[in-house]
Amino acid sequence: MKELELFAQDGKKIHTYIWDDVKEVKGILQLVHGSCEHSKRYNDFAKFLNDNHWIVISNDHRGHGKTADLEKQELGYFADENGWKILVDDLFLINNYIKKNYSNKKIVMLGHSMGSFLARSYAIDYGETIEGLVLSGTAWESKLSLKFGVRVAKSRQKKFGAKNIDQFIWNLSYKKFNKKFNKEGNTGSEWLSIDKDNVRKFIEDPLCGQVFTTSAFKDLFEGLLYIQNKKSISNMRKDLPIILVSGSNDPVGQYGKKVIKTYKKFKKAKLKVGLKIYENLRHEILFDIDKELVAQDTLKFLNAI
Length: 305
Description:
8-stranded mixed beta sheet, Rossmann fold, alpha/beta, Lysophospholipase, 39% helix, single chain, Hydrolase_4, AB_hydrolase_fold, MAG_DAG_Lipase
């Protein structure tokens, strides 16, 4: 694994990881991590893909991992305005790096959780730059709830500032994910996976589990409205192979319901989409008890493109 810093148009350093211990390269996986985590967590998965002829490249988003400047209170913060678009454009920066350094190799994007929302946004804006899309732990949210969320976040940003750590909005959104699993422990993160060791590592990681700033919540809700817009979806390539993967016990996808809804919306838009729901697994299927099966299935999808 190598680490480098790429510079976005606004001069921001984007911390990036490259796993390239590969012989006879088949392609590049551009991995897009989720909220409140970072790319290095995917080390084992990336090594597995390396062993199977795939290079993996992933950047820490703004507000996350080593891209977040802790002295400037950037953990959980994207930008004052247009944060979602900025994050998507950062992915385009990484994609350009891949094209420049690994020419003539196919690029497939894998996005997990918030990363799946970013990847959907990327496929709308820059779909011609990738050859496939894996969406892990994705969902379809209520338009009414999202619009309400944007209004609340804008109002709170005006009152408390863009970098306000917003426990109030977190309580209304993320906190509810653990409701079904509270009896298993008191960490609040049991919903992530059945694997207790994975939950422990998440909790002990100082770069995981941060509460978003008010502006980041606003950006997330606006991003979700954008990717669920009918016109936006119509801009996605009809020939782009897409697969939705999720655990049946994942609260983000409402235990499969919101994933199936996304699948149906994509089907209606005549997108080339497949669906795989893993029985009993929770949100982080790439780190859960059947992670080897998920990794093998992902590899099959990549190799079939």
